């Protein structure tokens, strides 16, 4: 391959992507599974031409909204455990700007996603081009520069030869365990069509593998010595455990040393529900059992977690003098809160720690205490999730679906009250089957992310289902990928739980002493006559099967029909906005409250919040 190929910039980008592979479980797959696209004048004539010729190798899914395309790409990457990604292509101007939110979601969640977006003309001959934002003192500044803050890799192609360096660098970033995240490439409309004599070798087939970084021996020895001194150790299992393929090693490590395991939101589905060392989810959306042992632990081994504030209870979930070991492939995450860092791959790190810790086992009475707490928590969740025990609730709906789903079905939820309820009550039947998007807590992810997950799931486990839980608020924000799922024959089961507005924020509003205002539809002063949305009718208009049920028993029957259906099925059920919430299992969470107010209830709640701050760790 010593020759050259004269190609446009766009053609070269697509040909390069089509020849990049990854080995997963002994099989080769294209590392890019295809893309999501909406064409406009900024990408249709050149990039569209190139994508047409590669439509068999890189299937292009037509999006309905650029933001939801990005969410779908994130859902796809999660289902493939970050080993494969999708690209998103959008036109210049508002089309590209719509991707900002989903880029931020991918950045917060450390997910690979490639954005190939139109840009203004490099020559500036038609300046200002349609949809161009003009900055009078800086003509180089445009909408695409906004992506610098939400991308792990950013470039604007100003000459066709640039992609010889830019594309491999973008790919290396997206496939790096520590730096993984979205890559943005701006493509000026004229440069997309310019040609260059590219070396044929640039398009040779390449097979990639995810790097496994061995931890430093000195860091392992120091961490093992600290663990060996522990009387009350716990292990926090984050999402990075699954991305590293380290669930088996984590489980073996915990069993060998008798250490109870708690899970983060991203780390749900590391251990099965009935594993004796699974003490439950930890933190603000956690369980009484996990939080009880977290606050008593003397040494905490945090594996594959970025320790965000819902995990740490804004750093009140742990004792002031507890010691933290951060085993993480990312240096930034491993060293948080003056943790003792062990920088490296979770699988290799756990194996090394296990070897260095040979002979150590946590005291039996500590594990017995943790398991007794877990038993009490399970009794509570069994009670609150029992249909008929109070008005219709998220918890009841979750348990009904959970009991009826297949072990390999995937559950997807995101912002609002459902992440807490799914985290608390979903009983894991199979490893890696839970996607609760709470890294960016992004409304609208549910259906779009579910569609992307279903595309990936269809490639891996076509007989399984993707189950989406969404509230009425998120549904109204972004629902058009119901239509996408029908168009592409990628069936979803969507449970729309209608509580009449943004009920979880109304709950926070009330819990801080404020009156209900502008969250529930009934409490909006600008709404003279509230009325109910016909969600089932709306979903049916986009081609889905849809029905409304009155209670959890009817939900179960409808779910059985949905499982048997041949296309997307939407089930709608009203739930109570005030009752039925999970009231136990929550650590303190820092929210800003008014220091001065005329409302005595708000003043009292402010004093209560400030009094709880005494437990907050100050970084030592």
Q: If you had to describe this structure to a student in words, what would you say it looks like?
A:
The chain is an alpha/beta fold. It is globular and about 70 Å long. The longest helix is centred in the middle third of the chain and has 21 residues, at about 365-385. The model has no long low-confidence stretch (mean pLDDT about 95). It has 24 helices and 23 strands. The protein has 3 domains: about 5-210, Rossmann fold; about 215-375, Rossmann fold, CATH 3.40.50; about 385-575, Thiamin diphosphate (ThDP)-binding fold, Pyr/PP domains (Rossmann fold, 3-Layer(aba) Sandwich), CATH 3.40.50.
The percentage helix is 25-40%
What is the H level of CATH, i.e. the homologous superfamily of the largest domain?
Thiamin diphosphate (ThDP)-binding fold, Pyr/PP domains
> The biggest beta sheet, please?
6 strands, parallel
Oligomeric grouping of the chains: single chain
The overall strand count is 23
Class based on secondary structure composition and strand pairing:
alpha/beta
Short overview:
This protein is of the alpha/beta class and 620 residues long.
Topology at a glance:
Layout: E1 4-8, H1 9-18, E2 20-24, E3 27-30, E4 32-37, H2 47-53, E5 60-62, H3 66-79, E6 85-90, H4 94-97, H5 100-108, E7 113-119, E8 153-156, H6 163-175, E9 182-188, H7 189-193, E10 195-199, E11 206-208, H8 217-228, E12 233-237, H9 239-243, H10 247-257, E13 261-263, E14 278-281, H11 288-294, E15 299-303, H12 309-312, E16 323-328, H13 331-334, E17 340-343, H14 346-356, H15 364-384, H16 394-404, E18 410-413, H17 418-425, E19 434-436, H18 445-460, E20 466-471, H19 472-477, H20 481-487, E21 493-498, H21 503-511, H22 535-541, E22 545-549, H23 552-564, E23 569-574, H24 600-612
Helix pairs in contact: 1-2, 3-5, 3-18, 8-14, 10-14, 11-15, 16-17, 16-23
